[in-house]
Amino acid sequence: MADFIELRNIGLDPSIINHLSEILDFSEETTEKTHHVPSRVYLREKRAMAATPADVKEYPNEFVFIIDVPGLKSDQLKVQVEDDSTLVVSGERKREKEKDAGVKFIRMERRLGKYLKKFTLPENANTEKISGVCQDGVLTVTVEKKPPPEHKKPKTIEVNVA
């Protein structure tokens, strides 16, 4: 309020000062919200990831990702590799369209919406050899491992005496 008292002393109307104060407060609130609140897309993606349970197993020659996707068919799922290092599994289950007019839900508990899970692949994952099988609401994605690098024998360099 000390700033406004000074402004009043120079002849500004108090109603103008109050109006300017409201504008500045609104601007500050809006700026704080837009800079610190995640976007709706980000929140939707995070909710989808949290709601998609998965297990990851490592075998001697492969990694196996087991993801629960109840109600999804193979054609509703997408398995991708981003940047050669991230396995992305996504899908969406939409509400079935009712054939009969006048049908209403009495109870609706089955999950609808997007499924999304991202996994960072280890360096030895072979992104060229990935397969997936969906059975009984469970998607199993298998990523083969690259063969271990061959240990090179040290190269011997002949030293000449000068």
Structure notes:
The chain folds into 2 domains: 2-36; 53-96 and 110-145, Immunoglobulin-like (Sandwich). It is built from 3 helices and 7 strands, in the order H-H-H-E-E-E-E-E-E-E. The chain has helices spanning 2-9, 14-36, 40-50, and strands at residues 54-58, 62-68, 77-82, 86-93, 113-120, 125-135, 138-145. The strands form 2 sheets. It has a 4-stranded antiparallel sheet, with no helix packed on it. Strand 1 (54-58) and strand 2 (62-68) form a beta hairpin. The chain is flat, with a radius of gyration of 30 Å. Residues 1-5 and 27-32 have low confidence and may be disordered.
Structural topology:
Elements: H1 2-9, H2 14-36, H3 40-50, E1 54-58, E2 62-68, E3 77-82, E4 86-93, E5 113-120, E6 125-135, E7 138-145
Features:
single chain; 162 residues; Immunoglobulin-like; 4-stranded antiparallel beta sheet; 3-stranded antiparallel beta sheet; 3 helices; 7 strands; 26% helix; disordered N terminus; SHSP domain-containing protein; Small_HSP; HSP20-like_chaperone; cytoplasm; A-crystallin/Hsp20_dom
CATH class of the largest domain reads Mainly Beta
Domain count:
2
- Biggest β-sheet: strands ordered side by side in the sheet: 1-2-7-6
CATH architecture of the largest domain: Sandwich
CATH topology of the largest domain: Immunoglobulin-like
Low-confidence regions: 1-5, 27-32
Mean pLDDT: 77
- Write down the overall geometry: flat
**What's the helical proportion of residues?**
25-40%
- Largest sheet features: 4 strands, antiparallel
